[in-house]
């Protein structure tokens, strides 16, 4: 399933038109996709706005009328301001359908309730602010007095399609038929009270989703098909020997959380290279791990023989950490995950990334990302993330709600994760998990996607009965979550 912000969706339509479709054709495809969701109703009222969302409603009205339905179109405003596609269908409707101009005719509760469904085609992703004037009055009337179903075309009118929050007035829908792609705001679980059930309908064309800038939602099905079964003759080395260069005398918990994330998500052998104080703690917290005391400077030889390396969690920002990070970045010859303090250090000398020959995954939160790639307030995060990944030839895991993952060519958001997981240490566990999947032989982009999805999925299971989810508990639940996914168990 694909997702887009308002700008990306506008660009998507422009891309389709550049590649030979006319707007009238696209509206025709859109109404084809809508038809099956409305065809079980007999008396249908369609609210039509001035743009192409309204045009979808008009084209749908014509098709419903042809199948013998009782259709009434309600429109507002001045024909001269209607979009090209809207006018094309509006003219056909004038000859064929009952058309009510709400500027001239008042609708009351009785008139409204004659319909067993109201289709909301007032505004889609083109709405830029709260619906005003008559639009607002009609929406208020329907919310208060209409007792049948409301089905929204593409997006409920009044909902900000980027954030999933209402502008002020919003038309509550029982169901929303999102055309082509999910609107980014629908990822916000709080939008569901306005959208009702969301169904995505792709247009029956050769959809160029990613080429045209939309991104994919990596979901449970994707994770289920990506996760590998363990082999009956498997042995520990087969599942990766991973080195975690994490922790310091100041931060002794972070490496434990990373190591737990790595081990519980299937790594064969985990070695933690750290400060003596961390190494002393390791057997008590995680006896499965091997501790290596950190000496400086780190040599190429010390970094040999690993399937994946993680650097950063709890490393501290002491001078020694700067030297260590640059040594590891220069000498690593296994796929590398860079997290937390190592990212802050990297941001002081981004040219270090230019000389790395191994695959690199960076896992910043927004603050860390901004330090590496300053961008203007209000910029599109997915565009910035993609540009960064391309410029530095890395995989970027940009943490936040529905974490963004991109290698500069493909772009994803992760369907799992929740607000109960906003707890210190959660990122350490995630970095360990991604390292583990790298070490198990997943391609770097897959390791990032799968690690992040499973992290969120485990958190989602735990959050069903918890206000907050602790990283250590999450790590310990990873094997159960992976069992559910790998066995395709219905929950
Ligand atoms: N690929 C696809 O899936 C397709 C989807 N389609 C549908 O097209 C709409 C988007 O159409 P668009 O014309 O871009 O936008 P809208 O119809 O949502 O609205 C545009 C008009 O709304 C006016 N506007 C904006 N904000 C307000 C407001 N607060 N109050 C009143 N009017 C407002 C805007 O006026 P401007 O002066 O700002 O230009 C426009 O007149 C999408 O949602 C799908 O339903 C197509 O079928 C193509 C393929
Ligand atoms: K709508």
UniProtKB/TrEMBL annotation:
<feature type="binding site">
    <location>
        <position position="314"/>
    </location>
    <ligand>
        <name>(6S)-NADPHX</name>
    </ligand>
</feature>
<dbReference type="InterPro" id="IPR036652">
    <property type="entry name" value="YjeF_N_dom_sf"/>
</dbReference>
<dbReference type="GO" id="GO:0110051">
    <property type="term" value="P:metabolite repair"/>
</dbReference>
<feature type="binding site">
    <location>
        <position position="120"/>
    </location>
    <ligand>
        <name>K(+)</name>
    </ligand>
</feature>
<feature type="binding site">
    <location>
        <begin position="52"/>
        <end position="56"/>
    </location>
    <ligand>
        <name>(6S)-NADPHX</name>
    </ligand>
</feature>
<keyword id="KW-0067">ATP-binding</keyword>
<keyword id="KW-0511">Multifunctional enzyme</keyword>
<feature type="binding site">
    <location>
        <position position="154"/>
    </location>
    <ligand>
        <name>(6S)-NADPHX</name>
    </ligand>
</feature>
<dbReference type="InterPro" id="IPR004443">
    <property type="entry name" value="YjeF_N_dom"/>
</dbReference>
<feature type="binding site">
    <location>
        <position position="53"/>
    </location>
    <ligand>
        <name>K(+)</name>
    </ligand>
</feature>
<feature type="binding site">
    <location>
        <position position="135"/>
    </location>
    <ligand>
        <name>(6S)-NADPHX</name>
    </ligand>
</feature>
<keyword id="KW-0630">Potassium</keyword>
<feature type="domain" description="YjeF N-terminal">
    <location>
        <begin position="9"/>
        <end position="211"/>
    </location>
</feature>
<feature type="binding site">
    <location>
        <position position="254"/>
    </location>
    <ligand>
        <name>(6S)-NADPHX</name>
    </ligand>
</feature>
<dbReference type="GO" id="GO:0046872">
    <property type="term" value="F:metal ion binding"/>
</dbReference>
<comment type="similarity">
    <text>Belongs to the NnrE/AIBP family.</text>
</comment>
<dbReference type="InterPro" id="IPR029056">
    <property type="entry name" value="Ribokinase-like"/>
</dbReference>
<feature type="binding site">
    <location>
        <begin position="124"/>
        <end position="130"/>
    </location>
    <ligand>
        <name>(6S)-NADPHX</name>
    </ligand>
</feature>
<keyword id="KW-0521">NADP</keyword>
<feature type="domain" description="YjeF C-terminal">
    <location>
        <begin position="219"/>
        <end position="485"/>
    </location>
</feature>
<feature type="binding site">
    <location>
        <position position="157"/>
    </location>
    <ligand>
        <name>K(+)</name>
    </ligand>
</feature>
<feature type="binding site">
    <location>
        <position position="365"/>
    </location>
    <ligand>
        <name>(6S)-NADPHX</name>
    </ligand>
</feature>
<dbReference type="InterPro" id="IPR030677">
    <property type="entry name" value="Nnr"/>
</dbReference>
<dbReference type="InterPro" id="IPR000631">
    <property type="entry name" value="CARKD"/>
</dbReference>
<keyword id="KW-0520">NAD</keyword>
<dbReference type="GO" id="GO:0052855">
    <property type="term" value="F:ADP-dependent NAD(P)H-hydrate dehydratase activity"/>
</dbReference>
<comment type="subunit">
    <text>Homotetramer.</text>
</comment>
<comment type="similarity">
    <text>Belongs to the NnrD/CARKD family.</text>
</comment>
<keyword id="KW-0456">Lyase</keyword>
<dbReference type="Pfam" id="PF03853">
    <property type="entry name" value="YjeF_N"/>
</dbReference>
<dbReference type="GO" id="GO:0046496">
    <property type="term" value="P:nicotinamide nucleotide metabolic process"/>
</dbReference>
<keyword id="KW-0547">Nucleotide-binding</keyword>
<dbReference type="InterPro" id="IPR017953">
    <property type="entry name" value="Carbohydrate_kinase_pred_CS"/>
</dbReference>
<feature type="binding site">
    <location>
        <begin position="399"/>
        <end position="403"/>
    </location>
    <ligand>
        <name>AMP</name>
    </ligand>
</feature>
<dbReference type="GO" id="GO:0005524">
    <property type="term" value="F:ATP binding"/>
</dbReference>
<feature type="binding site">
    <location>
        <position position="427"/>
    </location>
    <ligand>
        <name>AMP</name>
    </ligand>
</feature>
<comment type="function">
    <text>Catalyzes the dehydration of the S-form of NAD(P)HX at the expense of ADP, which is converted to AMP. Together with NAD(P)HX epimerase, which catalyzes the epimerization of the S- and R-forms, the enzyme allows the repair of both epimers of NAD(P)HX, a damaged form of NAD(P)H that is a result of enzymatic or heat-dependent hydration.</text>
</comment>
<feature type="binding site">
    <location>
        <position position="428"/>
    </location>
    <ligand>
        <name>(6S)-NADPHX</name>
    </ligand>
</feature>
<dbReference type="GO" id="GO:0052856">
    <property type="term" value="F:NAD(P)HX epimerase activity"/>
</dbReference>
<protein>
    <recommendedName>
        <fullName>Bifunctional NAD(P)H-hydrate repair enzyme</fullName>
        <ecNumber>4.2.1.136</ecNumber>
        <ecNumber>5.1.99.6</ecNumber>
    </recommendedName>
</protein>
<comment type="function">
    <text>Bifunctional enzyme that catalyzes the epimerization of the S- and R-forms of NAD(P)HX and the dehydration of the S-form of NAD(P)HX at the expense of ADP, which is converted to AMP. This allows the repair of both epimers of NAD(P)HX, a damaged form of NAD(P)H that is a result of enzymatic or heat-dependent hydration.</text>
</comment>
<dbReference type="Pfam" id="PF01256">
    <property type="entry name" value="Carb_kinase"/>
</dbReference>
